[in-house]
């Protein structure tokens, strides 16, 4: 993805905010890549860096200030900034970039142009398959690949019946109608719920959902004639984290999780593998994707399957969809969505006695969750106004017939996780 951009290599010693430093460099208009401090000289030289940043600090309690990189940065003959992971801001990095005389030409528009050229060169006249989730990563990949190779792309959208209210229709409308992409919509709700019948353990639910998705996608790949290339929505944090934590090559390709070897692809196309999430969102908006997709909240692969506690049924999922839609709409309408990194409803397994229209009810309890986080490793619950929570509770219990109680989760991570299952 380098092309002709001046590049900074960040040698990471395990600092807690190595990605943060890289984001600052990118936002200042300079391309950069992150390598572990153990990287060998040939790996650094391959990127032809115009400057190097040493990102030190402590991670998991391990002091790194006394450590040295595997190769002395002075041997590369470029400016070096030794950045301590304590309280730095963009000022020091900005001044360093200026003193090194680097071009600030890393822009959204440049990325789009170069990504399309790269896809054209790699794919040629071959056919391409993409698993569409409706998330921002796969959506950006779909539009970029379509701009590059047009009708050579087929997108398969497996609707497992576990998406939020209105999302399947939006995916079909945006990609078929707005962008003219060949989209295969697989209605798999009955199949998925049949496989999940009677299952309450969250790990078993996850495995069944994942395995069923693989089988459905495998079948659709065969119907599509088993195209030569598979598009994958890998983004840069995935590569950084797996590379540094697992000791693997930072730039190595990653297989699609769980895809069986029986689907024979010539290779992967990973258009956004060197972008951070905020960069992917900017590209999405520049490509004309609606804000509802470009700024879409992180959503678990099993979808509502891990936000509906206990056995999954269409009735329970529809209840959760309605309650979740009311909560998310209210957050946006009241301008509170900017305060949260993620917010959603959970249908708990608890049922309780209540009163509606002067009659006894025995309904579900819905929990609301809103958290703020920078890395999703830790998170704080959002202090939503009590008047707002009261309004949302009244709207949910009035409009979702089988819910008679609403609670708000005020637990941070840790000790809790962001999701309930």
Describe this structure as you would to a colleague:
This protein has 3 domains: 7-99, Rossmann fold (3-Layer(aba) Sandwich), CATH 3.40.50.880; 108-292, 3-Layer(aba) Sandwich (Rossmann fold); 307-408, GMP Synthetase, Chain A, domain 3 (2-Layer Sandwich). It contains 13 helices and 15 strands. The model is unreliable at 244-260 (pLDDT under 50). The strands form 4 sheets. The chain has a 5-stranded parallel beta sheet, sandwiched between helices. A 4-stranded parallel beta sheet has the order 2-1-3-6. Strands 12, 13, 14 and 15 form a 4-stranded mixed beta sheet that branches. It has helices at 18-27, 41-45, 90-99, 108-123, 136-149, 167-178, 189-195, 202-223, 236-246, 277-286, 291-294, 314-333, 386-399; strands at 7-12, 31-36, 51-55, 58-59, 62-63, 80-83, 128-132, 153-159, 183-187, 229-231, 267-269, 342-356, 359-372, 380-381, 403-408. It is an alpha/beta fold. Helix 6 (167-178) links the parallel strand 8 (153-159) and strand 9 (183-187). The radius of gyration is 24 Å and the shape is globular.
Mean pLDDT: 88
Oligomer: single chain
Count up the helices.
13
CATH architecture of the largest domain: 3-Layer(aba) Sandwich
For the report, how would you describe the main beta sheet?
5 strands, parallel
């Amino acid at each position: 993805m380098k092309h002709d951009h001046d590049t900074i290599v960040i040698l990471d010693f395990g600092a807690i905010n190595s990605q943060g430093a890289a984001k600052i460099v990118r936002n200042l208009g300079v391309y950069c890549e992150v390598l572990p401090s153990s990287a060998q000289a040939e790996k650094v030289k391959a990127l032809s860096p115009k400057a190097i940043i040493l990102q030190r600090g402590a991670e998991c309690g391990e002091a790194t200030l006394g450590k040295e990189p595997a190769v002395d940065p002075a041997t590369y003959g470029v400016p070096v900034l030794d950045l301590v992971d304590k309280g730095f801001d963009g000022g020091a990095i900005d001044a360093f970039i200026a003193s090194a005389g680097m071009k600030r030409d890393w822009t959204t528009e440049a990325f789009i142009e170069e990504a399309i050229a790269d896809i054209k060169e790699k794919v040629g006249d071959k056919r391409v398959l993409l698993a569409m989730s409706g998330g921002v990563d796969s959506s950006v990949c779909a539009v970029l690949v379509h701009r590059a190779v047009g009708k050579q792309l087929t997108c398969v959208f497996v609707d497992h019946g576990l998406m939020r209210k209105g999302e399947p229709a939006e995916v079909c409308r945006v990609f078929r109608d707005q962008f003219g992409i060949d989209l295969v919509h697989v209605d798999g709700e009955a199949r998925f719920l049949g496989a999940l019948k009677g299952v309450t353990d969250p790990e078993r639910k996850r495995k069944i959902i994942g395995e069923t998705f693989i089988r459905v996608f495998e079948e659709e790949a065969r119907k599509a004639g088993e195209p030569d290339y598979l598009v994958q929505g890998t983004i840069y944090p995935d590569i950084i984290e797996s590379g540094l934590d697992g000791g693997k090559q930072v730039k190595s390709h990653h297989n699609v999780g769980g895809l069986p070897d029986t689907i024979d692809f010539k290779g992967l196309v990973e258009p956004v593998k060197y972008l951070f999430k905020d960069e992917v969102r900017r590209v999405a908006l520049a490509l004309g994707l609606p804000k509802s997709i470009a700024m879409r909240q992180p959503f678990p692969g099993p979808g509502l399957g891990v936000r509906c506690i206990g056995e999954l049924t269409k009735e329970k999922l529809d209840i959760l969809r309605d309650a979740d839609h009311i909560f998310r709409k209210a957050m946006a309408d009241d301008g509170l969505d900017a305060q949260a990194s993620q917010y959603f409803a959970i249908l708990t397994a608890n049922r309780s006695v209540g009163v509606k229209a002067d009659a006894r009810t025995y309904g579900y309890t819905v929990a609301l969750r809103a958290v703020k986080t920078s890395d999703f490793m830790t998170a704080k619950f959002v202090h939503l106004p009590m008047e707002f929570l009261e309004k949302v509770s009244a709207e949910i219990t009035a409009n979702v017939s089988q819910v008679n109680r609403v609670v708000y989760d005020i637990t941070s991570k840790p000790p809790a996780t962001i999701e309930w299952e």
